[in-house]
Amino acid sequence: MEHDEGISNHSGNRPFEDVLEVNMQRRKVLAGGLAGAAMGFFSAPALAGMKGWGQDRNDTAHRGGRRSSRLLGFSPVPVAEGNGPWPAISSDYHYDVLIPWGEPLEPSGPAYQWPPTAADQARQIGIGHDGMWFFPIEDKGCRDDDDRAHWGRHKDIWRGGENRHGLLAINHEFGENMHVLGKAAPESLEDVRVSQHAHGVAVVEIQKKGRIWRAVESDNARRIHVNTPVAFSGPVAGHALLDTPNGNIPLGTVNNCSNGHTPWGTYLTCEENFNGYFGAAGSWSATDAQKRYGFSSNGFGYGWHLFDRRFDLSDEDYRNEEHRFGWVVEIDPFDATQTPVKRTALGRFKHEGVAITEGRGKRVVAYMGDDERFDYIYKFVSEDNWKKMRRAGKSPLDHGMLYVAKFNDDGTGEWLALTIDNPALAARFADQAEVLTYARMAADVLGATPMDRPEWTTVAPNGDVYCTLTNNSRRTVADAANPMAPNPDGHIIRWRDADKHVGTTFTWDIFLIAADTHGTEDSFASPDGIWADPDGRLFIQTDGGQKDGLNNQMLVADTMTGELRRIFTGVSGDEITGITVTPDRRTMFINMQHPGEGDPTVTNFPAELDGVTVPRDCTIVITRKNGGIIGS
């Protein structure tokens, strides 16, 4: 979300560029990671910890002389074709459009009209399509913990209806007033409700009929938006920090950016720039905590606080309402009666996404980025085997430890526990609930490493964890690893944790710096969405100022060789985000967000070009013409 231009971290913690600069005055960062320069940068313990990362790091070839990819067999979209008001896709692939903003959740629902009414929007697909996940509907009705979400391990079902029928849980991050309402600011509570109902999450049942995917009638289809009842669980549940003098019940989720999914088959949606929906209609002075989370009198200009008291920071009757946002929210897509649950053990910050993996002892491990300049990377580890915990009636996401990352000079790192048992935190916070509610401030105290806007995370099958650092326009110090100051283009960092994800140390390197690609056929900037597939491919999506005349795009990298190929480009003014696949990986769903920034004179996608029709966020369905695996 590009309109959050502030910096909330004034802790003075050692910047990431300083860590790199200590040991490297000059090093070459290659398309596939560190090559010979790694030998001079990392200590012997760090190098030992990197053994087995894909192939030998020193076998990665430099751009222009790199080894040919064994995984990328498609023809890339040329730079010259990746611009303008219409998408472009590899000549080996085909795309279709699915569930544009305003389409009914079910065919029997209200049809799209612009601008929508609040009542209709609550029953329609929202705007700002972002993170999502496909939950297959099994032909045999198998729904237990081992099978429902672990379809990737059950190749015997890959040829069944699970590849043609499922529930799509999808985030609707944001839609600005001009796009949603056709006006710069709301003029009534009805206007505010339209905007609120355009945000949130949709669960929609989709089915492939012939070669076309469509939404179908479903008992599970529903919208979860800013006025939907929610519950809290974990250490902050029931705490006074979540109570308001008004006594209003907790409602809603907002600015749902990236996502995750659990081994037990539920969807995780992440609240990112929640601060932007609050403002002050009267006299108000920000507390230190509110400043640290970026609250301001006008927010992002949505104007909700002018008609909905819940979002008015100056209204004492709703004090603490802002503490109810900034969490990871769990939703069961297969149970429309379930109340979404905010899992407070995962901390409160601007969650970009949450990549879940199974660590040693079958503990659940979650990797998360806090998407703001100079903020941090976090990890959560459940206290026990997740199956055992669920059998005991305990959520694995309620009981465990939250950590924040510190990157050391020698290519190693530490996970610092955010616990009230630490005397440094006990001197600042009253209890663990305060530590988690003010996770950013607790991380400041521990000396976590400020990063360049940590966004999506993904865990590769070999244990590598990747995080996109999309950019940092406020960087003032150039160094060999981030040679631009400011750094408008971003990079991707990679690490491996000790003890199969549950350890408190890690080794790290830089996988890719976007600026190194400029002027080439692989050109990209501002990496954002990211997904590692089971074969060693890394799908990279962008959000921001692309170079070489390109629109935002999706590329595929071979993590073994470093080769990049562009598979899709969007339209002018959009963002490419969100990624999920069917179990056989022969259908991929991605999202086109805010095409043309909502301006019909820029693009009318997905409608034909006419200069008048309002463009609509939508899901793009990608298939290979020969029926192969996506990315091959």
Automatic annotation (TrEMBL):
Protein name: PhoX family phosphatase
PROSITE patterns recorded: TAT
